[in-house]
Amino acid sequence: MIPLETTPLYAPDSYLNLYWDSQRNTTEWSVFMRELTTAGNAIARLELQLIAPTLHGAHIGLFDSHALLADMYARPELYLNGSAPFNVTGAAHACVYQFDESQLDPGVCTNAPDPDSYLWWDELHPGVQANRVVGKAISDVIHRRSEQWITWLS
């Protein structure tokens, strides 16, 4: 799982949006998401470590999308591009909703003119450039051009 606590949806300063338009304690949500993704990733690693010895001849690698997205968040200049300043806290396609507004309503949405400068596409999903970076990193591992972001378990 990616570091969901850094997405606009689960950030401590989150706003009402398409995915959640009710009141909530955003700091509590952010902390819970950090705990959830950290624990979930640890459990997945343990499960794969347990099953790896039983799959004779298999090569099992755990791709660390959490670490990669966290690095993109911490050092956007290495990953994002575009002519606008890098933005790791906002969304290229952001929609602000009112309290308990119908999800059928369009909300107040804005589209950034330079989405490659944003880490997040919307309040929950990685942006276009982030997806390119993840795709290239996975391709590099598959073709053995890089061992970064991968832990081989067998």
From TrEMBL:
Superkingdom in the source lineage: Eukaryota
Listed InterPro entries: SGNH_hydro_sf
Record-given protein name: Carbohydrate esterase family 16 protein
Record organism: Dichomitus squalens
